[in-house]
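Quick one: structure tokens for this chain, please?
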Amino acid sequence: MAKRIELLTAVPVVSIEYDGTGEFKNDDIIPYLKYPRRNVALDQKMAL
């Protein structure tokens, strides 16, 4: 489902599991925010 959502919205879906250890799991999404992946299919749609 995540892949379909990403195709429709051009927004990456990131799944984080909190394990109760108290670690900063939100830090796991920093690379997704800092280095977003380009959506080639969306770029092609916009060019039409």
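The chain has a mean pLDDT of 76.
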